[in-house]
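We emphasize that the prediction below concerns an isolated chain of 236 residues; any contacts that depend on oligomerization or on bound cofactors are therefore not represented. The input was used exactly as deposited, without trimming of termini.
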Amino acid sequence: MPVVAVPGTLCSPAVFDALAATLGDGFDVEPVDWLTGSGPWTVPAVADRIGDAVAAAGRGPVLLIGHSTGGAVALWLATERPELVAGLLAVGTGAHMRGHGDVDAIIERVRTAWGPELRQAVLDRSFATPPTAEFAAVLRDYAAGVTPEAVAQVLASQRDLDLEPRLAALTMPVTVVHGRHDPTRPVERAAELAAAVGDGELVVLGTGHTPVHESPDQVAAAVRALAVRAGLRTAG
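Result of the prediction step, given as a token string:
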């Protein structure tokens, strides 16, 4: 079954490689590189491009995975074009950025202090368990190819969005996966997201901000369970 996976800001699509390998046959994981292509890079615009690609390929409805900012993109797509989404896995994300630190200061740093140190700080914050040296190099190389304009634009868009009023209208099953050691949002925010949708479940793991890489076995189990709830496969 098709699985469209949307990574977070500055995060390489390769962050889903371990999950794809763990899921194995029966799940066709397609990571989306939305930051290095053409803009605009607002959350609605990115979601619309992904939805257009899914529709054009005739592959929907899909299982949709969104990590961090990619989760906001996935939530927007699911609320705007629900016919394309059979089930949604929202990872380390939320419906808004309230309580998400000083977003304006982060955007200003992107605009004025863009460089290897800033990108590395963002990547370091994304993993409670440091990635291997080899994978860390993959992450750095990808981040170096992203423009500050794209990052600033999508973060400003995410800051200005509040998807909470849209959540109750979601009819597909939603699983919210959150790392207990995620520094970006407390578990309570993830619980609020899961409770706000019509058919939501919360899975809390002992990871940081990127459980799709830090704990692929457990996230794969959540994906399989979501596929059953979405009616895409049978239990067992």
